[in-house]
Design goal:
520 residues; Rossmann fold; five-stranded parallel beta sheet; 21 helices
Length: 520
């Protein structure tokens, strides 16, 4: 006897449909799994056997062979339990196969036959739709997540016993629609109380730099003494980033679903993620890894912000692995059996002190810098030149005066709402400029397209040439200055890059200037 159903697994963050084939033949009672299953799938033998018995079905006392095709793709996880159990029930005639044709099954079985949720359901349901599968049967707690994919029927099940009286007429009681899952609570990120830049008194120039970074999705680093508000400024950056488009929201939600970190299964993520890993994180924790790689922090920050506080405290190896994601906007991890690619298009926001003690350049009678030039150089050398080259804005954060700390008594500080309005205008200009090109923001410009868009006046050309030679800029830094100047022009709703746009972009290369001071 032979039977077949559809299931799926994750390959990176994308779903991959799998055929679960079952053959029941005469022989010694045993169950063999083939098709490169991992240990969690091999252990499903006992879960499936026990749950079938405890749900009132009969487990065949014959030789059972289960094949997961394609056989050359390594599979992992417990999402095949339900598909294997249903395939056995169909093969032995205990469940009719007719109403279950073109149906994909996902779910982990408990010993009593109840279904437990599994990660990555969103990606796997999307893969099923692309294959033309019409229905997906998943655990009830995964149903709202799968229903986020339009054009596919989702059945939320609580127990294997739900298949006992399954037919085309009665199965509709299990159908779940998006946003209709009574077992879920809405934790929509858009309803969170996001911190506001109105809380920050003073630091007007730094606020403008943060707004420029958000307008063009540029990387930014803040350098300043302890207590100047660097972390406070970065943590408010999500409040000036626009909501994600449908495509971006699906992309990010699939990453969190595959990672098992999706807090709200009833809606797509609309607020851009903010990831702030501790400086003890490993290189694999940042970019992803493992025997079967999982997304790291750079992918969890996709379309959002990756905040690295106290940047020089991160290990050199962890920082250097950021170079490829920052340049390619994706992470490629090679293993013997497969190559995995995770998206990683994010804003890198970093903060650091100017020296080990933190007070270089901001000395007062109470706090004087005690670091020697050699110690300062050693501290800054933890951040390599190639990594700094990939950061567009180097911004010094000065110590605010007493009057600035109390400016709310005299004037209303610039709020996130005001900043967001300007950022939205800049994003709209970029959307219109790059329509149909595959480019979304200024930070993605390169090659001929950048030379066409970033036209300079003769005065601007001379200014950039002088700065390039005086600061010893690299070709990458040259291009980043042009992209940054274009974003500044967009914020001012100007169609051309003017010399003062270029001058402002150049002055954001503070670390290049400081390096020249030390070299001199």
């Amino acid at each position: 006897m032979y039977g077949k159903v559809w299931s799926a697994c994750l390959q990176g963050i994308e779903g991959r449909t799998i055929e679960v084939e079952v053959d029941v033949s005469n022989g010694l009672p045993q169950m063999n799994l083939v098709g490169l299953p991992d240990s969690a799938i091999r252990e499903s033998v006992e879960r499936v056997r026990t749950s079938i018995k405890n749900c009132g079905f009969t487990f065949p006392m014959d030789r059972i062979t289960v094949n997961l095709a394609p056989a050359d793709l390594r599979k992992e996880g417990s999402s095949f339990d339900l598909a294997i159990a249903v395939a056995i029930l169909i093969t032995t005639g205990q469940v009719s196969s007719e109403p279950l044709q073109m149906t994909l099954f996902l779910g982990e079985l408990a010993l009593d036959g109840s279904l437990r949720p599994v990660p990555g359901v969103l990606s796997m349901a999307h893969a099923a739709k692309q294959l033309g599968i019409k229905r997906v049967c998943v655990p009830r707690l995964n149903a709202a997540e799968a229903a986020l994919i339009d054009g596919i029927e989702v059945c939320g099940l609580t127990n294997l016993s739900d298949f006992r009286n399954w037919n085309q007429q009665t199965h509709h009681e299990f159908v779940v629609h998006a946003g209709n899952n009574e077992d879920s609570t809405n934790f929509s990120a858009d309803q969170r109380n996001i911190e506001d830049y109105a809380d920050v008194n003073g630091q007007h120039q730094v606020k403008r730099a943060m707004m420029i970074a958000a307008a063009g999705m540029h990387n930014i680093i803040l350098i300043g003494a302890p207590g100047t508000g660097k972390t406070m400024l970065v943590k408010r950056m999500p409040s000036i980033l626009p909501p994600m488009s449908d495509h971006e929201a699906l992309e990010v939600t699939k990453i969190f679903s595959a990672s098992g970190k999706l807090a709200d299964r009833t809606s797509l993520m609309r607020t851009r993620s903010f990831r702030a890993p501790h400086h003890t994180i490993s290189a694999a924790g940042l970019v992803g890894g493992g025997t079967i790689p999982k997304p790291g922090e750079v992918s969890l920050a996709h379309r959002g912000i990756l905040f690295l506080d106290e940047l020089p405290e991160f290990t050199r190896n962890a920082l250097e692995v950021l170079r490829q994601p920052l340049e390619d906007r994706s992470v490629t991890i090679a293993r013997a059996r497969a190559v995995y690619t995770f998206p990683s298009q994010f804003i890198l926001a970093a903060a650091m002190n100017p020296c080990p003690c933190g007070f270089y350049g901001a000395e007062t009678e109470a706090n004087a810098c005690v670091c020697s030039p050699a110690k300062i150089m050693q501290y800054r050398s933890k951040i390599s030149g190639p990594l700094l080259d990939r950061i567009d804005l180097h911004v010094e954060v000065p110590k605010p005066s007493y009057a600035q700390l109390n400016e709310h008594t005299h004037a209303n500080p610039l709020s996130s709402k005001e900043m967001l309005a300007k950022v939205l205008i800049a994003h709209q200009r970029q959307h219109e400029r790059y329509a149909g090109t595959g480019i979304h923001h200024n930070n993605e410009l390169s090659g001929n397209r950048m030379r066409q868009v970033c036209q300079l006046t003769a005065e601007g050309e001379e200014l950039l040439r002088a700065s390039f030679e005086a600061l010893g800029l690299s070709a990458r830094a040259h291009d980043r200055i042009l992209r940054l100047a274009l974003t500044i022009a967009d914020l001012e709703q100007c169609d051309h890059i003017l010399p003062h746009h270029l001058a402002e972009a150049i002055q954001y290369r503070n670390l290049d200037k400081r390096q020249k001071e030390f070299d001199g």
